[in-house]
Amino acid sequence: MLMVTSPRVSLDALIENLKSMPPKRVLRKEAISLWEEPIPPVEMWKASQPKKLQGSVLAIDAASVSIYVPAGEVAVTAGALLNGKNIVTHPSPALTSSRGPPFMGAPTGVDLSWITYRYLKISIPYAEDPLIPEGAIAHDIRINLETQLIRKAADLGVEGVLLIDGPSVYPFTQPAEGSKWSTELGLLNEDRVDVMIRAFRKGLIPVCVVKRIWGASQIPEASRGGVRDVEVIIGRLGGRIPEDVPVVFGPWESRTRVGLPDRIMAYVIVPHHPYLRNYSIFRVEFLRDVAESLGDGLKDLIASVAWLTKSYGTYVPPSLHVVDKVSKELVSQLSKMVESKIRLSGIPILYGGGSLE
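Above: the chain sequence. Below: its structure as tokens.
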């Protein structure tokens, strides 16, 4: 059982434990191929302006930062849920007890409030996995926090659309045979899918939005011809981005060979300026069961997300823009505080929290 202590006291205890931990070698992640079947030629269509989205538009996002010390990775995360004009963050200024998901992780081997020292699903200490890959602790606590925010949104009792910043399921990485990380990630994905289905049954349609897609290869190799997804899309557009109407590439069904659920995907191209050729591209993902339940309404929903983005001039739907900004600002403040306390304690920082996930 976690000790009920304040976040400040837990952080002080964490630093004392880090001083006594031996140095650790960190493995880098290497992605494995997921995609099994080639897809037929994917339809491209102009998204005519649909009717206004029915119900509420909610959004969630979580961000994380990794700080590396000789003992390994110290991870910090923060998340936000937007419901109308109300926004909830975790952690929040009102945090007074140890209830809720941890927002920090480190290989200390000691239970501390808000700080986990072990994989959240399989309960094996991070320090006992000699093959733990780089960034695994940050991914562990961030994906878990995202799932808890989806669960919280489902329990609000509102109907509408739930925009989720990130993929419907996270791709597996296998740095080396025997790593516990892939087992942990599989369980995190199962929990994530279950919670999204639960939200859908309660009246919220989960729409996952992936914005960092310039190096993506979600379209199988046989259909991509060895180039990136965005190159496929730009090639199909013939270099001509519509000036006034969003364009959609898809949807299509993505099948995998590593136990992930089948998904329905589409790329959305949103023009922002008729003369400068300024536009944004992002991917939307749906669980197949959700997409099939929507039927003909799936394309209308994709078009609604596209036009919502265009109407507000943001590069992703505006609700996601808000939670993305809030979560990143919060985790940046937290990580700077943690990094400062680590430096003041005399623990060397190998490389710090310069990258936000």
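Residues 1-5, 31-36 have pLDDT under 50 and may be disordered.
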